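Quick start: what a row looks like.
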Amino acid sequence: MLYSDDELLSLSLLQHFVFCERQCALMCNEQLWADNSLTIGGTQMHKRAHGEAPRREKRGDIAIVRGLMMSSHSLGVSGKADIVEFHKVTEGGVHLEGIGGKWLPFPIEYKHGKPKVDDCDRVQLCAQAICLEEMMQTVIPEGAVYYGRIQRREVVEFSESLRSGTDNAAVRLHNLFRSGENPPAIYSSRCEQCSMMALCMPVVTGSTRKASQYLRKALRELVKEDKSS
């Protein structure tokens, strides 16, 4: 299936969808968003990645392009890459205007925090690679996510399983958008650092068992504070 230009969704929504479907639904269906220190730090990091001059430069056998617009009609997404490195190769690759030789794209996504347990960041990066593959008619084997907290890259191989997971997430994202329905909240420990927690209210509207565990924990902490005062 190929999506039309009018059906393209923001590529970054894939990351939110894999992280938490309810968070993504509140953004898509309710147009809700809230910032906290983590999201603000991430926004600042993206601005630095996009805003570093020059937008396009060459360093030896690596050409660097910042803020490259991209889209995929097979996934139905479009967005902007933080950085795409083009590594000079002897076989395969693509031509770059104004630069001789062949170059293999290597997308890099910048994140403020540290590597996550789930695949949300890797899916977002894989979607960028698929966009570039469709636009440039090439095959991209890997890219990287740069994490600000640990200040290093995590190389991501675009395996068949990751590509399949990315395609599946894109289909489900479009289904979520078309349905206009919000999945129920499911409270977990990661909700505590989510900037959308006050809007989502997982403790009130989510799983009864998880909510009761949260409330018991909060009550125990209050009792400890009373005893220590």
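That is the whole record. Helices lie at 13-19, 21-29, 37-51, 120-136, 160-179, 197-200, 202-205, 208-228. The chain has eight helices and ten strands.
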